[in-house]
């Protein structure tokens, strides 16, 4: 009888650990993501060493910097554009406030590109205020969706994680895979 009690206790503890480790982020909840991840990731630091992100080793990665931003652009170039996802994560040295003026500016900028907002959500990410905007439209001959995730690092800086998906197949799954990467962003400050 003691053996059964110990096994039940261990099962309960193991179950609690499993569910606590698989807590969905707000981004994943928005897209109702199931566990979706990549194998063989490598840590990539931006040029200014302000942040890092774990990305698939076989993806093409470009680094960029200028006076106010440092970016990591990545995508799987072994797949067709309509079967992959493009990810652009930038640390921008500029203040951002998720107020009415900012939201209107985002709306106007995307409308000028003939993109229509399909979702918007404020939440907490990396223990920081964050905003997610999803737009849909056409780019070239392809249907196109973009998810802009703004993360306010502090009063002088924010991160913009842009996820782009072309085509109509497996859009949600591709967004979820990208979010599994975004969730690994680490600030080096």
Describe this structure in words.
Residues 1-22 have low confidence and may be disordered. The protein has a single domain (24-187), classed as 3-Layer(aba) Sandwich (Protein Transport Mog1p, Chain A), CATH 3.40.1000. The radius of gyration is 19 Å and the shape is globular. 25% of the residues are buried. The protein is 26% helix and 40% strand. The protein is α+β, with helices and mostly antiparallel strands and 189 residues long. It starts with a helix and ends with a strand. The strands form 2 sheets. A 7-stranded antiparallel β-sheet has the order 3-4-5-9-8-7-6, sandwiched between helices. It is built from 4 helices and 10 strands; from the N terminus they run ααβββββαββββαβ. The protein has helices at 2-21, 26-30, 100-111, 171-182; strands at residues 41-45, 51-56, 60-65, 69-75, 86-92, 116-125, 128-139, 142-152, 158-166, 186-187.
Largest sheet, order of strands side by side? 3-4-5-9-8-7-6
Mean pLDDT: 86
Secondary structure class reads alpha+beta
- Cα separation of the termini: 53 Å
Low-confidence stretches: 1-22
| Helical residues, percent | 25-40%
CATH topology grouping: Protein Transport Mog1p, Chain A
- Total strands: the figure is 10
């Amino acid at each position: 009888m003691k053996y059964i009690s110990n096994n039940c206790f261990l099962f309960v503890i193991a179950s609690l650990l499993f569910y606590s480790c698989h807590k969905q982020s707000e981004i994943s909840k928005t897209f109702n993501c199931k566990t979706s991840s990549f194998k063989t990731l490598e840590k990539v630091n931006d040029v200014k060493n302000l942040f890092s992100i774990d990305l698939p080793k076989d993806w093409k990665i470009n680094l960029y910097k200028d006076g106010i931003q440092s970016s990591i652009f990545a995508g799987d170039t072994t797949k067709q554009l309509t079967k992959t996802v493009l990810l652009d994560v930038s640390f921008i040295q500029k203040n951002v406030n998720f107020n009415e003026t900012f939201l209107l500016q985002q709306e106007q900028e995307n409308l000028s590109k003939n993109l229509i907002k399909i979702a918007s959500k404020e939440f907490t990410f990396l223990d920081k205020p964050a905003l997610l905007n999803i737009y849909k439209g056409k780019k070239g001959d392809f249907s196109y969706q973009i998810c802009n995730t703004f993360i306010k690092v502090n009063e002088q800086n924010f991160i913009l994680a842009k996820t782009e998906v072309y085509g109509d197949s497996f859009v949600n799954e591709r967004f979820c895979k990208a979010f599994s990467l975004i969730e690994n962003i680490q600030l080096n400050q």
